[in-house]
Amino acid sequence: MWLDTHCHLDVPEFDVDRDEVVARARTAGVSMMVIPAVECAAFARVKECAHRHRYAYALGIHPLYVDRAGHSDIGRMRAAVEEALDDPRFVAIGEIGLDNYVQTPPRERQQWFYAEQLKIARRHDLPVILHVRRSADDLLKYLRRVDLRGGIAHAFNGSDDQAQRLLQRGFRLGFGGAMTYDGSLRIRRFAATLPDDAWVLETDAPDIPPQWLRGGPTLRNEPYQLARYGATLAELRARDVAGVAERNRANACAALPRLAAVLASSAT
Hints:
It is a single chain. Helix 7 (185-193) links the parallel strand 7 and strand 8 (199-201). The chain contains ten helices and eight strands. It is α/β, with parallel strands linked by helices. It starts with a strand and ends with a helix. Helix content is 42%, strand content 16%. Helix 8 packs across helix 9 (241-255).
């Protein structure tokens, strides 16, 4: 069984064929996904999508969406998280973080929302799903101020030192489409050499398409691709595919402890 730790199944790109996307994923052996929210307006949609398809979800305000949020949205998020604590399919705070690749939203605004959401995660002892784009050092600076459970560093592409510091704080590093690019030498080296308990698999669908979709008629990524990502990781690590699938599941549950109950309920 494959588990996609990061799939935006709720977004409009999947509105025309979401059920078919889910069916293709299940045919490929991808039977569980974590669906992270990106803004308060998406919270209800993410929750409904997870329940409809028997998946898991996270609640958060993405750094690229903070210009669409007001300070009152942190209050809305607090209330939504407190309500979701009784929902077994709710597993984390996310997708949150910082994005230093872009100039807008301003970094100060991103930082305020990130810091406030870390406080929510700490208050409820929840893991976080981090957006990390040229921002690992800044993310770590805030993490040093808040004692968190850990979580997942989504689409990690930082340095060796940054990777080690995240691992020391209880995070797993997410590997997906970029791992399949021949030119992604550092990511592929991480995927090949990190300890067995240090990583998870993700698609970030519909984003970050794999190497074999680039230049094709469509760049929309889908969660069924995760099975091929798993085969790529197995080749990089010189492991059997079944073992990689099992380890991915164990690592995901270690990063997001509430996920184990979702897997158990979905298996019945």
